[in-house]
Design a protein that fits this description.
Blueprint: E1 18-19, E2 24-26, E3 31-34, E4 42-45, E5 54-63, E6 70-76, E7 94-100, E8 104-107, E9 112-114, E10 124-130, E11 135-140, E12 143-149, E13 157-161, E14 167-172, H1 212-220
Antiparallel strand pairs: 1-4, 2-3, 3-14, 4-13, 5-10, 5-14, 6-7, 6-13, 7-8, 8-9, 10-11, 11-12
Length: 221
């Protein structure tokens, strides 16, 4: 648990992913494979959305179709379902900040600029999201590629795009040791989330019980 305590970890959501085909989820929804042709690009979203704090996760592709494979974060309205979108990458209801295998950084607006090193299969791509300062930094095999995006606000989810074709990837949100955990960042784990405003709901909302005799006397009195 990388020293981050014990709790439930983020996974990829098999009920809410955007695809032109069907993907296969395995290993607790951390491994995903796709073998449905060159146009079968898919976007996978994590189950945790965060709006503050410093968070980190890693992705490794064991098979890639092309350099459109991407790792990053996504933001969409609560009512937006990826499963209803045939091409979620270019859907205006979803915003992405991505690091692509060709070395570019890109948003789903199609605006790409040169950013860091290129990467391919078996490279560990780390995503360090600092929502306290609004920055997003990517790592390749433990080496920082520098700040990619700034002024990030709102609630964000892990995001992976497979790039289409035959592909396979492995996500790690802290369920096993990270290859590289930057200082001050935490795993996407319920233990690390902020404490709820109401720690004990039973103090504010509970079932009131009474005996039949008291109910009768109250009703007839």
């Amino acid at each position: 648990d990388e020293g981050n305590g014990v709790g439930n970890y983020c996974t990829l959501n098999p009920l809410d992913y955007g695809s032109r085909s069907t993907s296969t989820f395995a290993n607790g929804n951390l491994d995903v494979s796709n073998s449905n042709g060159s146009s079968a690009d898919s976007l996978y979203r994590g189950t945790f959305g965060v709006s503050s704090g410093k968070w980190y996760f890693e992705v490794l592709f064991t098979e890639m179709y092309n350099t459109e494979a991407s790792v990053g974060i996504a933001k969409g309205s609560d009512s937006f379902s990826l499963s209803t979108s045939t091409n979620p990458y270019y859907n205006g209801s979803l915003v992405n900040y991505l690091y692509r295998a060709n070395g570019n950084k890109e948003t789903n607006s199609g605006s790409a600029t040169s950013y860091g090193a290129t990467w391919t299969t078996n490279a560990v791509i780390g995503v360090a999201l600092d929502l306290d300062s609004g920055t997003l930094t990517f790592y390749k095999n433990g080496s920082s590629q520098g700040s990619a995006f700034t002024s990030i606000t709102g609630t964000w989810f892990p995001c992976i795009i497979n790039g289409g074709g035959d592909s396979a990837l492995v996500a790690n949100f802290g369920q096993r040791p990270f290859d590289n955990l930057p200082t001050g960042y935490k795993a996407l784990n319920t233990f690390n989330l902020d404490d709820p405003t109401i720690a004990d709901p039973s103090k504010h909302f509970d079932i009131a019980t009474d005996t039949g005799a008291n109910i009768l006397s109250a009703a007839t009195g």
